[in-house]
Amino acid sequence: MNTFRQIRIIFFALIAGQLFYCIVALYLTGNDFILTENDYGAFIGFIVPIIIVILVLASKYLYKRLISAQVKEASLYDKIISYRTNNIIKFALLEAANLLSITFYLLTGDFLYIGLFLIILALNFIYFPGKEKFMTDFELTQEDLEKLNKL
After folding, report:
1. Which stretch of DSSP H or E encloses residue 63?
2. Which of 27, 52, 73, 128 is the most buried (most CB within 10 A)?
3. Whether the predicted pLDDT of 1 surpasses 60
4. Neighbour-count burial of 110, counting CB atoms closer than 10 A to its CB (0-12 exposed, 13-18 middle, 19+ buried)
5. How far apart are CA 81 and CA 20, in angstroms?
6. What pTM value is reported for the model?
């Protein structure tokens, strides 16, 4: 199977899991199946968005750092495998941020966390993996581009 197709399948599977969890959370809180704590502590309400922002920034920083270590010296195959692995790591960190925001929505019923979820979901789609993104991230040589077009 094409590696880029595998990456997109993983991407959509992660997105589907997040959306499913969000829909279940909205259903549970909307129908009063769970009790939310509206008077949730201000400290936690302040810390959780900071943790979410840290996870988002860490995903971008870690991805760039791992990619920059592989840019010049690796073969095309190694670059493709690295791209897949680094994307999985990046999307897992973004998913962790989204799962945390949805969980705190379940606890508090505060739509701030749904807003954070939607922002991070949009970031996921901005980072959509593909062959063009791979070519720009790894700064492929002409030889690598010819090999990639043959795949």
Report:
1. helix 42-70
2. 52
3. no
4. middle
5. 29
6. 0.86
Residue owning tokens 């062959």:
131
The values of phi and psi at residue 136, to 5°, are -75, -40
CA distance 100 to 105: 9
CA distances, 139 to each of 3, 69, 79, 109, 133 (Å) = 18, 12, 10, 45, 10
| Joined tokens for residue 116 | 């954070």
* Percent of the chain at pLDDT exceeding 70: 91
Helix (H/G/I), strand (E/B), else coil: 71: coil
Q: Is 88 exposed, middle or buried (0-12, 13-18, 19+ CB in 10 A)?
A: middle
Per-residue pLDDT tens digits for 105-139: 888 888 889 999 999 999 999 999 988 888 888 87
Token pair belonging to 85: 């692995």
Strands, DSSP E only, in the chain?
Answer: none
Biggest distance spanned by C-alpha atoms of the chain: 61
Q: What is the total residue count of the chain?
A: 151
- Predicted pLDDT at 143: 79
Crossing angle, helix 112-126 and helix 76-108, to 10 degrees?
A: 170
